[in-house]
Design goal:
single chain, about 100 residues, about 40% helix, elongated
């Protein structure tokens, strides 16, 4: 059985400055007790010979091969730009800084 009592819940609520009714304290006592008990059960089987996992099924990276394809020429890339200098996009300065 867990060590969560109504007095512990009342104390935690006071520390967190949360106003709780007696009904809420009773409900939270049961819920927090169940959580503490569940963590204790997991701790019993989580021995050093059991590797820690973040997911029950092994995950792998799903990637495609990096293949170089056709790319735009500079002229094609700049053709739709509202402003450019012939080799780069022109954008307005940010934060009042001139470049």
């Amino acid at each position: 059985m867990s060590e969560i009592t109504p007095e512990v819940v009342r104390h935690l609520a006071h520390l967190a400055r949360i106003g709780l009714t007696d009904d809420e304290i009773g409900h939270l006592t049961d819920e927090l007790g169940a959580i503490v008990d569940s963590v204790a059960k997991v701790s019993e089987v989580a021995t050093p010979d059991v590797p820690a996992t973040s997911h029950p099924i092994a995950l792998g990276m799903v990637t495609r091969p990096d293949v170089v394809g056709e790319t735009l020429t500079t002229e094609q890339a700049l053709s739709g730009a509202p402003a450019h200098d012939g080799s780069r996009f022109k954008v307005s300065a940010i934060l009042g800084e001139e470049q």
